[in-house]
Protein backbone atom coordinates (compact mmCIF):
# COMPACT_ATOMS: atom_id res chain seq x y z
CA UNK A 1 0.00 0.00 0.00
CA UNK A 2 1.41 3.38 -0.99
CA UNK A 3 1.90 5.99 1.72
CA UNK A 4 1.12 9.50 0.55
CA UNK A 5 2.00 12.79 2.14
CA UNK A 6 1.16 16.45 1.68
CA UNK A 7 4.05 18.92 1.51
CA UNK A 8 3.35 22.54 2.40
CA UNK A 9 5.63 25.49 1.67
CA UNK A 10 5.42 27.19 5.05
CA UNK A 11 6.80 30.43 3.66
CA UNK A 12 3.62 30.77 1.58
CA UNK A 13 1.23 29.62 4.32
CA UNK A 14 -1.37 32.25 5.28
CA UNK A 15 -3.05 30.18 8.01
CA UNK A 16 -6.28 29.44 6.11
CA UNK A 17 -6.31 25.77 7.27
CA UNK A 18 -7.44 24.54 3.83
CA UNK A 19 -4.81 21.79 4.15
CA UNK A 20 -6.74 20.41 7.13
CA UNK A 21 -10.01 20.46 5.18
CA UNK A 22 -8.35 18.76 2.19
CA UNK A 23 -6.93 16.00 4.41
CA UNK A 24 -10.29 15.39 6.09
CA UNK A 25 -12.08 15.27 2.72
CA UNK A 26 -9.59 12.94 1.02
CA UNK A 27 -9.47 10.52 3.96
CA UNK A 28 -13.22 10.58 4.82
CA UNK A 29 -12.49 11.62 8.41
CA UNK A 30 -15.66 11.95 10.53
CA UNK A 31 -16.68 15.37 11.86
CA UNK A 32 -14.90 16.20 15.09
CA UNK A 33 -11.77 14.18 14.28
CA UNK A 34 -8.48 14.99 12.52
CA UNK A 35 -5.73 12.92 10.91
CA UNK A 36 -3.21 15.75 10.92
CA UNK A 37 -1.95 18.43 13.21
CA UNK A 38 -0.76 21.95 12.61
CA UNK A 39 2.02 23.33 14.78
CA UNK A 40 2.69 27.06 14.80
CA UNK A 41 5.95 28.14 16.37
CA UNK A 42 7.52 31.59 16.53
CA UNK A 43 11.09 31.88 17.74
CA UNK A 44 13.65 34.66 17.78
CA UNK A 45 14.01 38.30 18.65
CA UNK A 46 12.10 40.96 16.76
CA UNK A 47 12.95 44.64 16.63
CA UNK A 48 10.20 46.98 17.74
Describe what this molecule looks like in 3D.
By secondary structure, the chain is mainly alpha-helical. The chain has one domain. It contains one helix and no strands. 0% of the residues are buried.
Characteristics:
mainly alpha, 19% helix
What is the helical fraction, as a range of percent? 10-25%
DSSP summary, beta strand count = 0
Largest sheet: none
Structural class: mainly alpha
Order of helices and strands: H
* Cα radius of gyration in angstroms: 14 Å
What is the general shape? elongated
Short description:
The chain is an all-alpha fold and 48 residues long.
Helix and strand topology:
Blueprint lengths: L17 H9 L22
